Amino acid sequence: MSIMAKKKACVFCGNTNLSNEHIFAQWLLKELGILEKDVTMTHAGFAGIPFSNRKHPFSKLVNGLVCEKCNNGWMSQLEEECKHHIINLMNLKEFKEELKFLEEHHEKVAKWAFKNVILLNSATNYRQLVPAEHYISLYEGNIPAGVFIDLAFCKKDITIEWRQTPGGLVIKNKSLPIRLAASRYTITFQIKNLLMKVVFYDSEVNTLYESKGVLRLYPQFGVNGESDIIYNDIDQFDLHGAMHEYI
Ligand SMILES: [Zn+2]
């Protein structure tokens, strides 16, 4: 007896005409010099300690879940709009000009980071942390409520690295119930010297992700705190910060 496989559909729009593209754009793979190289995929555990480490042919890391129309349409447009600025940021070039650009276009760059992390989660064999609504929300042009996106820099210039976890500490009012099943995730990635982090906690009340020493891209642009926005490595940045839940 055979079981009919459910036809795979685009995570964004539901279209079944899927593309065969990498989760990261071609220009980014080229810039990183890894178009054809193997990349070690690290799955970080709850405390950020890697519990599995294996090599994947990175050029074969295709998402398989994005349609041609999305890939060649809004996604390609988003890549085109961010490309030049991301290349500058990851190479620590023209910082003053890029800071000005971010101040004006922080939501666009936040969407670019958000698109990358949700596709990363859909394509890797780590457990599914990102709710289906988040893909639909981005397709409709919005970053979902409860999502915070930060940017910082790393002292070390590495090719690419990422971390996916259900997230760390949640600080809450005593009157609020503990919700162990709350949907949540923290996904951080590094490309050369650039660090980007997307944090989500699904609260029925209010949330604030507190993180000093970062450039917040979303929801409100700003430099948080007086401290430096330069980190030793991706783990230091990934584990930095705490989610607050309040009434
Ligand atoms: Zn689509």
UniProtKB/TrEMBL annotation:
Domain of life assignment: Bacteria
Name of the molecule in the record: HNH endonuclease 5 domain-containing protein
